Amino acid sequence: MESRIIPYFKGDKIAHIKTPHIEAFYRTLVDDYSAGTIKRFANVLNLIFKTAKRYSMIENNPCQDAQKPKRKDEDEGLKFFTPKQALMFMKSLDMSYEVTYKGHQRIDDTGKPYYVNEYTESYTVPTQYKVFFTLSLFCGFRKGETLALHWNDIDFKEKKISISKSVGMTENGFDYKEPKTKKSVRKVSIPDDVIPLLKQYHFEYIQTRFSHGTAWQGDLSNGGNLFIQADGKLMGHTTPYQYFTKHLHRYNEWVQNNPEKAKAEGLEELPIIPLHGLRHSCATLLNYLEVNIIEISKTLGHSTCSTTMNIYAHSFEEQQEEVATKVNEFLRLNA
To answer: Which residues form the Tyr recombinase domain (predicted)?
Structure first.
């Protein structure tokens, strides 16, 4: 978040920042972030100005009356992948992409600048991002629940993942907190096809951890965090969303540039959904596979089945129409 807040307000005296300035900042976030992420930006700013007021640096908190803008897609309902799109997304995670880097200046170890010419290299999605997005899509985890995972939360023998905590933002950075509801504390079964990916990532994680030696900055308790930065520290709160969005754009660009190959492989452009849309996609996929509403609700960690129905009623109804269409087609073929 510091990558947006600090550059935007850099050079402004805190006492000169008023409610219209806060609202103008919020508007810069609408096209890049989900409503939930914008709310977290607002919480950070509110904490900053609340502290400033407590220490008599300002008379009023400009965030108090600031209105957060609605995203254009908020009134259009939930954003998610259809089952067909979910399969295409999974294929996209295993593809190789050509990435071109523009010419730029760098500094060598002696402090002397040098120029790097434009170059292109092949790029594949790192395993930890494959794991993050796969768990979000097939297990329906919330982002905070996924970030909070430690290796000891995974029972490879029973093929289950325990959700008992979530990562939240505090005035001191990030901290663990209780999940959203009591029902959010749960054990979720891992699909058999996901187990090899988890084991591969665990092997890579162990290699990385030991290669760092004493320079490792990560949490060593409970087997360590699953999702990390290069030095082992917990992955940043906005990193999964940023990578997810970048990946979707990169994949869509590949489809546009390789239409014949994409058609041959049954690949189409994917909608740019928010990261939380993978959780919605999970619910939609489970309903498509005719999993009963009680099990869908348990998987998602909802407090009641009615919560699940209230959130997904519209998308479930659309799928029922698809089912009716398929039945009609079947009857016509066999008439």
So the answer is: 109-325
Q: Are 34 and 79 in contact (CB under 8 A)?
A: no
**Contact between residue 88 and residue 268 where contact means Cβ atoms under 8 Å apart:** yes
For residue 275, give the nearest of 117, 97, 145 by alpha carbon: 145
Contact 229, 216 (CB under 8 A): no
Contacts of 105 (CB under 8 A, 6+ apart): 113, 114, 115, 116
| 275-325 tens-digit pLDDT | 999 999 999 899 888 888 888 888 988 878 887 887 776 666 665 555 555
Residue count (the chain): 335
Name all domains of the chain by residue range, CATH numbers in brackets.
2-75 (1.10.150.130), 77-335 (1.10.443.10)
Integer Cα distance of 233 and 32 in angstroms: 25
Q: Supply the DSSP string of 194-262, one letter for each residue.
A: GHHHHHHHHHHHHHHHHHHGGG--S--GGG-BSSB-TTSSBPPTTHHHHHHHHHHHHHHHHHHH-HHHH
Q: Which of 71, 70, 69, 66 shows the shortest CA–CA distance to 22?
A: 66
**Can you tell me the mean pLDDT for 94-120?**
91
Contact of 145 with 168, CB cutoff 8 Å: no
Q: Is 323 exposed, middle or buried (0-12, 13-18, 19+ CB in 10 A)?
A: exposed
202 near 196, Cβ under 8 Å? no
Asked if 102 contacts 303 with a C-beta cutoff of 8 angstroms, the reply is no
**Rounded CA separation 205/152 (Å):** 13
The pLDDT tens digits for 195-248 are: 999 999 999 999 999 999 999 999 989 999 999 999 999 999 889 999 999 999
166-197 residue pLDDT tens: 887 665 567 788 877 788 899 999 999 999 99
Q: Are 47 and 171 in contact (CB under 8 A)?
A: yes
The terminus-to-terminus CA distance of the chain in angstroms comes to: 60
